[in-house]
């Protein structure tokens, strides 16, 4: 049931020389509780990042609103100067007021400030990829993205950003965005239990665009399913590993960014790339999210 792969193989972002290992790392969990303030143990956070890169991960997902600022500052402390080939993907479009909530920050000035915050806190002159985060965490909210995306396209022309992606978007917003500028990746909520983006994934796969599911393990509500537990027990892997292996086998344009603050969980997650799920097990796992509905949107 295991296969030899290097982090799930790799995928080149369209129109770029960025060849990403399909098993990446999501850095949100490195901030303190509630993605606010510093973590209890900064050295442990640094160890997770260094272990990921040492294991060959070359795709780190982050944002300056994690912490805020804290996660990017820890990434810089752990990894700067960055090794050749490491691709940092960050996002703008939200901010964290003092009450620790998440609110939209999509005005021209907020986007410009956020790009400069990311550059400063990551210690970079140019950002590899920026996702424009549009909707709320549980799903997209409809409306034109022309204004904010045009601002980012302008910053790209100025050389502050290499490539653009979209996050928390609907199919219509994706179509609108692609008419404005080249989109290299889409980052939406998707996992075994939340399958509302199935059609988008197929469409992006045909067009060679990466799909990067956030909350691949369920995020703040870890995936729980008897079918998942049964598959894990049969394969002698953990349920989280099976959930990640399912995503890797779901479509070749899916890139994973599971989040963890633990070196042990990181190693476990990376090992999921060696797990080959048999077809009949995939069929039974597919039933978990077959009828999934969009959850109410809150930013
Ligand atoms: N675009 C957006 O709006 C958006 C929204 C949310 C997240 N994201 C991005 O997506 C990335 C992934 O999302 P996420 O971190 O929120 O959710 P996730 O990857 O689905 O799950 C992370 C949670 O699972 C736990 N975990 C990780 N590996 C585990 C393992 N092997 N066994 C048991 N538990 C494990 C983590 O706890 P431990 O720390 O204890 O391991 C953490 O509580 C984030 O880091 C962020 O970069 C983007």
What does this structure look like?
- By secondary structure, this protein is an alpha/beta fold.
- The chain has a single domain (10-289), classed as Alpha-Beta Barrel (TIM Barrel), CATH 3.20.20.
- It is 36% helix and 14% strand.
- The protein is built from 10 helices and 11 strands.
- The protein has helices spanning 42-54, 70-79, 108-122, 146-157, 171-180, 198-206, 226-235, 239-250, 263-271, 279-286; strands at 10-12, 19-21, 25-26, 59-61, 87-92, 94-95, 103-104, 127-133, 161-167, 183-187, 210-211.
- The radius of gyration is 18 Å and the shape is globular.
- NADP nicotinamide-adenine-dinucleotide phosphate (NAP) is lined by residues 26-29, 61, 91, 133, 137, 167-168, 187, 214-219, 222, 240, 257-262, 265, 268-269.
CATH class, anyone? Alpha Beta
Percent helix, as a range, is: 25-40%
Largest beta-sheet characterization: 7 strands, parallel
Shape: globular
CATH architecture: Alpha-Beta Barrel
- Determine the strand fraction and express it as a percent band: 5-15%
Overview features:
binds NADP nicotinamide-adenine-dinucleotide phosphate, two-stranded antiparallel ribbon, 11 strands, 299 residues, alpha/beta, TIM Barrel, seven-stranded parallel beta sheet
């Amino acid at each position: 049931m295991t296969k030899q792969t290097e982090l799930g193989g790799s995928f080149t972002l369209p129109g770029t020389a960025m060849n990403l290992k399909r098993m990446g790392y999501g850095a949100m969990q490195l901030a303190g509780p509630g993605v606010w303030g510093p973590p209890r143990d900064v050295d442990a956070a640094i160890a997770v990042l260094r272990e990921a890169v040492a294991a060959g991960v070359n795709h780190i997902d982050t944002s300056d609103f994690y912490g805020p600022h804290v996660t990017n500052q820890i990434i810089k402390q752990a990894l700067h100067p960055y090794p050749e080939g490491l691709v940092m993907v960050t996002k703008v479009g939200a901010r964290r007021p003092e009450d620790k909530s998440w609110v939209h920050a999509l005005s021209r000035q907020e986007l410009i400030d956020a790009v400069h915050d990311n550059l400063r806190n990551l210690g970079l002159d140019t950002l590899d990829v920026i996702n424009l985060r549009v909707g709320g965490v549980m799903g997209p909210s409809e409306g034109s993205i022309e204004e904010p995306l045009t601002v980012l396209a302008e910053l790209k022309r100025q050389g502050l950003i290499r490539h653009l992606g979209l996050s928390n978007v609907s199919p219509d917003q994706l179509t609108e965005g692609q008419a404005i500028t080249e989109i290299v990746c889409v980052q939406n909520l998707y996992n075994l239990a939340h399958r509302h983006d199935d059609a988008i994934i197929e469409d992006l796969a045909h067009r060679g665009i990466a799909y990067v599911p956030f909350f691949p393990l369920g995020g703040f509500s870890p995936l729980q399913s008897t079918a998942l537990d049964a598959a894990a027990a049969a394969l002698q892997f953990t349920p989280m590993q099976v959930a990640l292996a399912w995503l890797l086998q779901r479509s070749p344009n899916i890139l994973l960014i599971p989040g963890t603050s633990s070196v042990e969980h990181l190693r476990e997650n990376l090992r999921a790339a060696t797990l080959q799920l048999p077809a009949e097990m995939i069929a039974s796992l597919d039933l978990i999210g077959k009828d999934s509905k969009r959850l109410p949107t809150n930013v």
